[in-house]
Amino acid sequence: MIYLIALAALILLGTVARLAQKGDGSDEPLTVADNCSTCSGINEKCEQECMMEAATRDIEYYDDEELDAFAGKRSDDYTDDEAELFREVLTTMLPSDAKGWNRSLILRGINVPDQVKDELLLLLGE
């Protein structure tokens, strides 16, 4: 699993490097904050940089190891009981941890159940 994440990070890094050489025509400089909690979602470059950074580090768990059992499951295939496991983790975390948790799930190949997505998006927007 670590090898797949490292390979994906290398491919993404190569793509970003190639695009940086070509330039995207914008004069907007890429600014990445010291930590990724300041990415607002408006600047896609910031989000990409933070995902690349997260892919090179160990995956951070939010006391949710039991969710690894759902890796690869489609977001619309969850039962209400399974979705409740995600909701329980989501409602017990600090709102400021929502972005990190979402990144953690992405890196672990876990899709958020459709039943919980609206609640997660509300926290991500705060």
Description:
With 126 residues, this protein is mainly alpha-helical. It is built from five helices and no strands. The protein has helices spanning 2-22, 44-56, 80-92, 98-107, 114-125. Helix 1 (2-22) runs antiparallel to helix 2 and helix 3 packs parallel to helix 5. The radius of gyration is 16 Å and the shape is globular. The two termini are 32 Å apart. The model is unreliable at 22-34 (pLDDT under 50).
Give the overall shape, derived from the CA principal axes. Answer: globular
H/E element order: HHHHH
Q: What fraction of the residues are assigned to beta strands by DSSP?
A: under 5%
Question: How confident is the prediction overall: mean pLDDT?
Answer: 78
How many strands? 0
Q: How many helical stretches?
A: 5
Which blocks of ≥5 consecutive residues have pLDDT under 50? 22-34
Indicate the percent of residues in helices.
40-55%
The assembly state of the depicted protein chains is: single chain
Q: Biggest β-sheet: count, sense, barrel? A: none
Q: What attributes does this structure have?
A:
single chain, 126 residues, mainly alpha, 5 helices, globular
Helix and strand layout, with pairings?
Elements: H1 2-22, H2 44-56, H3 80-92, H4 98-107, H5 114-125
What is the compact description of this entry?
This protein has 5 helices and no strands. With 126 residues, it is mostly helical. The longest helix has 21 residues, at 2-22.
